[in-house]
From TrEMBL:
Coiled coil found in the keyword field: no
Keyword entries, A-Z: Membrane, Transmembrane, Transmembrane helix
Transmembrane segments: 6-24, 31-49, 61-82, 103-127, 139-160, 180-200, 225-244, 294-312, 324-341, 347-363, 375-399, 411-435
Name recorded for this polypeptide: GntP family permease
InterPro entries xrefs: Glcn_transporter (IPR003474)
Higher taxonomy: Bacteria, Pseudomonadati, Bacteroidota, Chitinophagia, Chitinophagales
Organism per entry: Chitinophaga caseinilytica
Amino acid sequence: MTASFIQVLLSLAAGIGLIVLLTVKFRVHAFFALFLACFAVGLGVQLPFPKIISVMKEGFGHIMQSLGFIIVLGTMLGVILEHTGATRVMAAAILKLVGEKRAATAMGITGFIVGLPIFCDSGYIVLSGLNRSVAGRSGVPLLVMSVSLASGLYAVHCLIPPHPGATAAAGTIGADIGRLMLIGSAVAIPAAIAGCWWASWMGKRVAGNVPHDAHEDEPLPATPAWKAFLPIAVPILLIALGAFMKMEHGSDVLQILGDPVVALSVGVLLALYTGTGWKKAEVSRLMLEASEKAGGILVIIGAGGAFGAILATTDLGTHLSDALPLGQLGLFFPFLLAVLLKTAQGSSTVAIITAAAIVGQLLPKLGLDSDTGRLLCMLALGAGSMAISHANDAYFWVISKFSGLDMQPMLKVYSVATLLMGITAFLAVLALSAVMM
């Protein structure tokens, strides 16, 4: 029996509503919210129970096949860089290059670079002490410094693999991971600049200085700056070369090295190289920590894949294409859908995974059913997942608590910054679409 459009729409609303209710009000882990939403949608469109289970297993397995190694390796890279202090070395090098007079800009750049392999909340926690220290030395208000750092981390978190939302959405839509990492980085730059600009302009109007605490001046590791940057720079270079060789049908060796799994593996080895005096027990502990962190991310991504597979059985694309002028909406549809989901439930990861599951089957109707179209759709989803971060977002509270900032200035400066970042990123995507399509 084929479900009617009203039945599909109500089932979809029930599934998304359940995700929002469970994650926001009851603080249920995103995996279980997505897992239960699969049943809400499946039963709503009258799928047999065994069929629901079967489709969920297929969706879960497919997404793991595509993204599992990338998530684990990216997490491992971030854990090692935190442990060795390479993130703080990079921050100090950028601050020295830019100068203390432009300390907020330095922290924005630091967040952007450190955020490439490290998730935004972890990166902020690692750099929060250094951020307060630099704010005290430079006299720049801590609110300005904190939102600049947060903006740099957030821009790459929403747009670029191996971050979980972007990685999962790319797998669902079928966007090329290597090209997404490269072009996503280009889109993230103006987004980060917009966040840093608003932090500097508005932050100085609503914030005061925070006294400097001398105990926050922790000594930096002896790692040379060039060595600290290697684990990030080399994988990006390999992926760029691999993508170029793939387009030009060039060297097979470079195409292999440019595979994100291989490139991230090289990054992990280089990250180990930044440390000294490694002990077997220490390396084992870091591997365990990375595996545990990655496991929590993988189950969310897997549940997102299962949810997408359930949605694919509802023939939602045909129904929506008959009801909405999707061909005219184009990139606006994935962007606005991601904005709605992000603002409603808080998590960028859940927003982009859920939106990708819906948009994935609408690509032909949106005019985005090509390699370039899928890439641009993915970037539009990432831009939408930035806006708006507020009190229902865990990252909002990480910034607030680790910087000692009250809610009102956070809403005026950080939340508005995320709105500007999302709009700026989407405008960059539109500009790219004019050139690439």
